[in-house]
Prior knowledge:
By secondary structure, this protein is an all-alpha fold.
Amino acid sequence: MPEKGYSMSTATSETKLLSHGLLWFGAALSIAEIFTGTLFAPLGFEQGVIAILLGHIIGGFLFFLAGLIGANTRRSAMETVRIGFGRQGASGFALANVLQLIGWTTVMIITGAAATNAILPWGTAVWSLVIGVLIILWLVLGYSNLTRLNLVAVALLFCLTIWLSFIIFDPSSAVAGALQLTEDQGLSFGAAVELAAAMPLSWLPLVSDYTRTAKRPVAATVVSTLTYTFGCILSVSDPLFMPAKQTLPPLC
């Protein structure tokens, strides 16, 4: 039973498994994730893969639990925080969530604009405005009404990931050279696991906002977790295949 003083949030429309799968797989396939994967490259392929898998298992498990709470209670992420911290206590988490969303959206816009400008050099300012308008359009329409568009977007992102993989495999490409790190820029194994875990954990303030509208709560949470985790592992692991300028010594 809902706690006194809190109203149970009801979704105006229930979302299907396909919508959740496309949404989270698309969220995981991005240039930002691939660039983050360059930090794992100096560890070497074996240590890098282990760190990525271990971190995503840890983070993905907590991602699943947070999404399941929202799916079962039909509450958004910030509403579920009220269960343990009350209205006043949840205000601090809500403010921190708004600030981190503004910051992360800014990073994504800048990264996307820089990448797009490399293909069509119209200027990063122009592409930043275009991407910003597209984000606003997505918010206005709502993700439940964009299933077909999400399908096209995810397909294009997947093709882009494969294309970037071939570029990275080519040691003479400018992209591969730009992504290579030296020894002093690399992470320790522990820090790499922490970074990998932080990627799904960064979505904890948002995952319930989507799973709460699921037609099948548990199944949608499982699909969301698996598609995001798989897609993120795919993106982050990409740079591990590129030739490294220097190879770090094996970790003890």
